[in-house]
Amino acid sequence: MTGSLDAVLQAVAGVCLVVGCLMSLAAGIGMLRFPDLLSRMHAATKPQVLGLFLLLSAVAIELRSWALVPVLLLAWLLQLLTAPVSAHMVGRAGYRTKHLKRQTLLVDELDQVVARAVQDGPGRDGLAQEGPGQDGMGQGPAGQDVAGRTGGCSAGTGPAGPAAG
Amino acid sequence: MMTAVAWICGVLLSAAAALAIVRVARGPSILERVLALDVLLMIVVAALCVDMAVNRHTDSLVFVAAACVIGFIGTVTVSRYVTDRRNS
Amino acid sequence: MIRPGSRPATGTGEQGPRLTFRIELPLLVWMALVWGALWQDFSAGNLVFGFLLALVVVNVFRLPPVELSGRFNVWRAVVFAVGFLGKVVLASFQVFALAVVRGPRVRSAVVGVRLRTGDDLMVTAVGHVLTLIPGSFVVEVDRGNSTLYLHVLDVNTHAQVERVRRHVLDLEARLVRVMGTREEMARVDAERAGLAFPPPQDNGSTPRGGDTARKEAP
Prior knowledge:
The structure holds three protein chains of three kinds. By secondary structure, chain A is an all-alpha fold. Chain A is 66% helix and 2% strand. Chain B is mainly α. Chain B has one domain. Chain C is built from seven helices and three strands; from the N terminus they run αααβαββααα. Chain C has helices at 17-39, 44-60, 74-101, 120-132, 158-179, 182-192, 212-215, and strands at residues 108-114, 136-142, 147-153. Chain C has a three-stranded antiparallel β-sheet, with helices on one face. In chain C, α1 (17-39) packs across α2 and α4 (120-132) crosses α5. Chain C starts with 16 loop residues before the first helix and ends with a helix. In chain C, 33% of the residues are buried. Mean pLDDT of chain C is 74; it is low at 1-14 and 197-218. Chains in contact: A-B, A-C. At the A-C interface, α1, α2, α3, β1 and α4 of A face α1, α3, β1, α4 and β2 of C.
């Protein structure tokens, strides 16, 4: 009985390992094949999280150890918390330095916000935090202006919007 | 069976690492390179995990936990640097 | 960063040590647990030592305190976590399939979605979850208006853009049910009942044109 359970666990661990590695491969393929920085970001973030989860559970299963679970969970949670932040930072830097291909975008609602911010010059701390002493586009757009603009952007999400959903 | 799994994983991870390295070499901007290096770091972590599972030890467990944080700090630093330098 | 609708910001140490300690308690417990996990030793002595260490760390490296809303629905959190895991799996395979099948021809969009809440923690949580579930990740955050600008992969029609918006707001509603304040809960409930809800911290002069999304239509 324990022998068959052992075999099952081993098989599960094996499948987890292979699929986890497959996710790394997915990230690699995505990095190479997607057209611009922002879409490559998807490939770099999402499969990694699942891949690490599968690999860590394979380690826990293979070592048959419950004492290991907290530290493995911690490693995964750390990645869960850091991966979106680093993706956001890279994406933001990429967007602001124009590392994107316009023709791959169907809609770009941020474009006008940033354009207006440049026009109005340095403003309040409108967009996400930004170090002091910079000028130009690095600065967040003036708060009031964004309020006006984003109101237009998210028209579909206004008071009437979500009721439809 | 575990040796077969180890071989399959090795092949998959090597292919993934090769693709990531191609992106590091080709990447038009430093952001793409740092992203690809992040992926590469995660592939190394994956290799460590496979090693731990197949050989049944926990030696590199702390590195796995630390690598996430190290990759995070590196990526954030570079992207901050890119955003800041463009303005000066 | 005092904004209407939220409690007054707790400065570092202005309200007296007692209140600060109460707000920081979840963080301290979390850090003690991390300490225990790293040592793989959850004995009482080790946890207490970790807690003391966390106390030192929190007091030496001061950061603005994260204010939790004070309510947490465990059942909904479990449901949310299971759904979230399922979506992470889906997201990974979706990206894989897209990378292999569509590759360089994939089209995407940058969509702005204005959230209901102005709470920093909630906006962060929604942004994090959005980055990990299929299709979207956060490019830019407009903190003043709690608007997230998402990059959405594989968007081909404007109808899909609208669907993304509804999806994001639905996600926010579910997160509010897990850990939002009572105020936000009431707003979500009212909305579900089909009532118009008061827009979050409106400046009064916000035009709601609805033209922006159409303007860039090819």
